[in-house]
Design a protein that fits this description.
Belongs to the DegT/DnrJ/EryC1 family. L-glutamine:2-deoxy-scyllo-inosose/scyllo-inosose aminotransferase subfamily. GO terms for molecular function: pyridoxal phosphate binding; transaminase activity. By secondary structure, this protein is of the alpha/beta class. The chain is built from twelve helices and 13 strands. Helix 4 links the parallel strand 2 and strand 3. The two termini are 19 Å apart. Bound molecules: pyridoxal-5'-phosphate. Pyridoxal-5'-phosphate binds next to helix 3 and helix 4.
């Protein structure tokens, strides 16, 4: 048990501070609350994070994925290759446009999609690949884009967990046909709820702007069938405040992760691996526990250390995927995915951790010792 004066350390600590509150109130008082000047300003600032790409703000990361697939004309009869070791939203977007998710395995070091598995999964129906920059580690985009170019596939980056991650100096969200970000409260920056699509092509950006707003640029002059996935100006104003702090928060996450990796020495705990050239921004600091994970998590919780499993069930084993795939005779062989789902635990790494918090996390993890 943590001692009486030791508060439990939460796994995540979303910030809604005075600046965020003031920004939200300012917008509410202005009366311009939906897709107005704050949204435009948020999009413009976010472009700095993705080498000046066109940015289109929407109401969630899931909407961002969904609309990007729609804008790329992906639909029934198409296959999209995606790792099963991700949040269900990645595959849900594929199914929401009527396409089939083809699940592939991960690289056991980075937890991101294995490029060789992507290439092996390509069929005549494949139209796109969706790498997920899981936990904030960039996927092997150099290899994935080379494979995609060779086979004329679109690359849709799920960067929902990876704001400001990069590979060899190129930021995520600037590699593929498009990238998507989430601003859910637990993400490295948030807008209460929200999402951003980043694309290189101006025409696709225009289509996305139409799709998020009932197909309209001019009011009541609908050009295509669209949805309502607009971002509010309240969300955008909060997002702008957070975006201005993202750099500092990211540096702090990276420093926190470095401290944990340097000091965690339990022989049955494997600390995160960072691929060469990768800027891992530690949305999650995820270790593998070799042994009884449930027991380890219970001990951490008892010591007041927040912890969580992302994700205990790979997407291909979730009911809405498992049942139709079984019926269709599609069986996925994903040993590294299954192993990761059984071993991973994420520890607190958020920027508000103090040195004392970090020491407590290390002490608790090292106390797990052998023989779990
Ligand atoms: C990998 C991944 N993809 C997509 C999403 C969807 O984002 P949102 O929750 O904003 O819809 C998330 C966020 O939870 C995510 O972690």
């Amino acid at each position: 048990m943590p001692s009486v004066n030791e508060q439990p350390i939460p796994a995540a600590r979303p910030v809604i501070g005075e600046e965020e509150i003031e920004a939200a109130v300012r917008v509410l008082r202005s009366g311009r609350v939906v897709q107005g000047p704050e949204v435009a300003a948020f999009e413009e600032s976010f472009a700095d994070l993705v080498e000046g790409r066109h940015c289109v703000a929407v109401n969630s990361g899931t909407s961002a994925l969904h609309l990007l697939l729609m804008a790329l004309n992906i639909g029934p009869g198409d296959e999209v290759i995606v790792p099963s070791f991700s949040f269900a939203a990645s595959a849900n977007a594929i199914r929401l446009v009527g396409a089939d998710a083809v699940f592939v395995d991960i690289d056991p070091d980075t937890f991101c999609v294995d490029p060789a598995a992507v290439e092996a999964a390509i069929t005549p129906r494949t139209v796109a690949v969706m790498p997920v920059h899981l936990y904030g580690h960039p996927a092997a985009m150099d290899q994935i884009t080379a494979i995609a170019d060779k086979h004329k596939l679109a690359v849709v980056e799920d960067a929902c967990q990876a704001h400001a991650a990069a590979l060899n100096g190129t930021p995520v969200g600037a590699f593929g046909a498009g990238g998507t970000f989430s601003f859910y409260p637990t993400k490295n920056m948030h807008s209460l709820e929200g999402g951003m699509i980043t694309v290189g092509d101006a025409e696709i950006a225009r289509t996305l702007r139409l799709l998020r707003n009932q197909g309209m640029e001019q009011r009541y002059a609908n050009e295509i069938v669209g949805a309502n996935m607009r971002m509010t100006d309240v969300a955008a104003a909060v997002g702008r405040v957070q975006l201005a702090k993202l750099n500092g928060w990211t540096e702090q996450r990276i420093a926190n992760a470095a401290y944990l990796s340097e000091h965690i020495s339990a022989p049955n705990v494997v600390t995160p691996v960072v691929a060469e050239g990768a800027r891992h921004i530690y949305h999650q600091y995820t270790v593998r526990v070799l042994g009884d994970r449930d027991a380890a998590m219970a001990k951490l919780t008892e010591a007041g250390i927040g912890n969580a499993v992302y994700y205990p069930t790979p997407i291909h084993r979730l009911k809405p995927y498992w049942e139709p795939d079984q019926k269709a005779g599609r069986h996925w062989d994903l040993p590294e995915t299954e192993k990761a789902a059984a071993e991973v635990v994420s520890l607190p790494v958020h920027p508000s951790l103090s040195r004392d918090d970090l020491e407590r996390i290390v002490t608790a993890v090292n106390a797990l010792g052998e023989g779990l």
